[in-house]
Design goal:
Blueprint: E1 8-10, E2 22-26, E3 32-36, E4 53-57, H1 62-69, H2 75-98, H3 101-104, H4 107-125, H5 136-154
Antiparallel strand pairs: 1-4, 2-3, 2-4
Helix pairs in contact: 4-5
Length: 159
C-alpha cells in the first residue's frame, strides 16, 4: 500500500500516537515522505508543540495494518496472513478447550508424533473423493498449528 495524504488523516491535539502511525515530511518540492514512527513516539499524546506532523492510515481492515506493519506486499503474503490469523484463532479455541498439559508432558517429541499422525491421515484422505469426518484443509491447518506450538515450546513460551 502506498501511503499518501489521501489515505491518511492528520493526528491532532489529544490524539495518542501508535507505533503504526507516520511522520509526514514535506520536501522542498512539496512532496511528502511518510516515515513510520515505530516505537519511538508510541504512546505520546499530541499537545500541539510537536515538531512533526503525525498521520494515521484511514484503513478499516486490520489485516491491511498488519501488512503495513510487517511490510507484507504481495497478494500471496496477504492471503497467507489471513489464513494464519484464522489458524491462530483455532489454536486459541483449542487451547481454551484442552489446556496445554497434553503438549507440555511430551514436548517436541509429542508434537512430532501428532504431526506424523496428520501426515498419515493426509496420505489416506488424499486418495478419497469426499472425506466425511475430517477435511484435507483441516489436517494441513492442524499441522501448521503444531509447527507454531513446537516453536513456542522451543522458545520456552508454551504454557
Amino acid at each position: 500500500m502506498n501511503i499518501t495524504l489521501e489515505n491518511t488523516r492528520h493526528l491532532g491535539v489529544g490524539d495518542t500516537i501508535n507505533s503504526t502511525d507516520y511522520i509526514a515530511m514535506q520536501d522542498d518540492e512539496g512532496q511528502y515522505d511518510f516515515i513510520i514512527t515505530g516505537g519511538e513516539y508510541h504512546g505520546h499524546i499530541i499537545d500541539g508543540t510537536e515538531e512533526y506532523e503525525f498521520r494515521r492510515l484511514n484503513v478499516q481492515d486490520p489485516v491491511d495494518l498488519l501488512c503495513i506493519e510487517y511490510d507484507i506486499q504481495t497478494d500471496m503474503g496477504r492471503a497467507a496472513l489471513v489464513i494464519s490469523i484464522e489458524n491462530v484463532a483455532t489454536l486459541d479455541r483449542k487451547q481454551r478447550d484442552y489446556g496445554s498439559r497434553n503438549i507440555s508432558e511430551f514436548g517436541e517429541m509429542g508434537i512430532l508424533m501428532r504431526v506424523w499422525d496428520k501426515i498419515c491421515r493426509l496420505k489416506n484422505l488424499m486418495g478419497k473423493e469426499n472425506p466425511k469426518n475430517e477435511s484435507i484443509d483441516d489436517s494441513w491447518l492442524d499441522m501448521a498449528n503444531y509447527a507454531i506450538i513446537a516453536i513456542l515450546v522451543r522458545r520456552g513460551i508454551w504454557k
